[in-house]
Amino acid sequence: MLQDLRKFLFKESLVDVAVAFILATAFAAVVKSLVNDVMMPLIAAIVGKPSFDEIVVMLGDTPIKVGTFLTALVNFLLIGTVLFFVVRTIVRVTQLRGGAKVDDEKVVADEVVILRQIRDALMARPGS
User: What angle do CA 72, 20, 8 make, to 5 degrees?
Assistant: First the structure.
């Protein structure tokens, strides 16, 4: 059982996912800072307030916090826009450096063939 646990924890794919998660968390902090520290102050300079949290509609005695929703919506749109341009730039730089195009079916087909050959070679090993 411990051997199975060790195999699971140290699988290359699991380590790759862990590294990707850590990098995504760090990248999220950068994007959040860009939105909160750069974009929202720009909006505040144009509109007058960086946050719409103070907008409340009263329905009887119940406050409906429309402003909080608007702030979250603006943050979502800004983060989505920033991510769009970052990913688009990364894809273009990769293509300019001679990287494979994202939708290049030939490259994907070649990789699948190579992966199948590796799988077959591993399965043919004694003790597998």
Answer: 125
Place of tokens 């769009």: 84
> How far apart are alpha carbons 82 and 97 in whole angstroms?
23
The residue written with tokens 């300019």 in the block is 96
Q: Which domain holds residue 11?
A: 2-124
* CATH assignment at residue 17: 1.10.1200.120
Residue 35 CB: number of other CB atoms within 10 A? 19
Q: Which residue has the higher pLDDT, 68 or 83?
A: 68
pTM reported for the whole predicted model: 0.48
pLDDT in tens, 94-126: 888 775 555 556 666 777 777 788 887 777 777
Structure tokens at 125: 């090993």
pLDDT of residue 64: 93
Q: How would DSSP label each residue in 67-80?
A: HHHHHHHHHHHHHH
Q: How many domains does the chain have?
A: 1
The vertex-46 CA angle with 40 and 50, nearest 5°, equals 35
